[in-house]
């Protein structure tokens, strides 16, 4: 074997084994997450109506056979968030379910159909009532024409 090709082979060998190690560790971590989260709860899509407004959401109920549970309501912070926060809430819902609590979370207005505001040409928040947006969110968005210098 040529002396110049040996360092190249060692480098390639090291790179391959490093990649295999990283992939094995990542697969192990994914396995641990999946093993720890069985999501033993019943998720139901719900509609909340009040004062002419409608919110769509998800109610996660423990599958423990009881008919009544305490309720944890998720109040979203800033930004467009759907009821599951792109499935990020599910581990917390599962922890609540294991403790015997149901969880309720809703889609922010206009978020369930994420691209509706693009088709309409305006942000869904620009048309939301101030009591739903906290007053400030509606003024931060709007049509492109609203943001043009005058």
Automatic annotation (TrEMBL):
Ranges of biased composition (kind: Low complexity): 138-150
Disordered: region residues: 128-150
Domain of life: Bacteria
The keyword Membrane is annotated on this UniProt entry: yes
InterPro entries in UniProt: AB_hydrolase_fold (IPR029058)
Keyword tags: Membrane, Transmembrane, Transmembrane helix
Signal sequence, start to end: none
Ranges that cross the membrane: 12-35
Record's keyword annotation contains Signal: no
Protein name: Alpha/beta hydrolase
Species this chain originates from: Streptomyces prasinosporus
Lineage: Bacteria, Bacillati, Actinomycetota, Actinomycetes, Kitasatosporales
């Amino acid at each position: 074997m040529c002396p110049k090709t040996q360092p190249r082979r060692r480098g390639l060998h090291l790179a391959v084994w490093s990649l295999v190690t990283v992939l094995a560790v990542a697969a192990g971590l994914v396995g641990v997450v999946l093993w720890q989260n069985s999501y033993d709860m019943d998720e139901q899509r719900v509609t909340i109506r009040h004062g002419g407004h409608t919110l769509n959401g998800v109610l996660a109920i423990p599958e423990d056979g009881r008919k009544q549970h305490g309720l944890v309501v998720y109040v979203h912070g800033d930004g467009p968030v759907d009821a599951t926060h792109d499935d990020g809430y599910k581990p917390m819902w599962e922890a609540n379910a294991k403790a015997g609590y149901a969880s309720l979370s809703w889609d922010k207005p206009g978020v369930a159909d994420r691209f509706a505001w693009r088709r309409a040409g305006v942000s869904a928040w620009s048309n939301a009532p101030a009591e739903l947006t906290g007053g400030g969110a509606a003024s931060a968005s709007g049509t492109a024409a609203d943001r043009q210098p005058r």
